[in-house]
Amino acid sequence: MAAHDSADNALLTPRVVTGPTVIVFWLPAADTLSADDQAEALDDLNNATDHIAPTLKRHNVTLLPTNAETIYVALPNRQRRTILLSGIDYPFGYVLLEPGTAERILAGVYNDDELQDEVEAYFDLPSSGDSTTTGPRIS
Length: 139
What we know:
Blueprint: H1 9-12, E1 15-17, E2 21-26, H2 35-58, E3 62-66, E4 70-75, E5 79-84, E6 92-97, E7 104-107, H3 112-122
């Protein structure tokens, strides 16, 4: 995700979430930050996202970027629940979503370990620091 992409039409289309998902968002309001602050925040956001991506993939949690201020969560009977991101403390961060449960909005920048802990807690994943966790055995 890049700061200059905040006007990209594809990223401005609201996302519809149907399963476990982490949405990384960068809203157009971030354009009001100084260029240096934008660059620093974006670097931190990208680094933390790169850090959690393998965990998300391993546990079938979708990772989606967006610049839209609205997210929809698919519900039964073709209903949707709306989540508005405008007006939160920071115009960038993460939304942790699993349909049927309350979302967790992580506004601002999180370091790698903090974000990893938040993701593991929200999705009830085994801790990456857990030495008893083993990968699949290949025969």
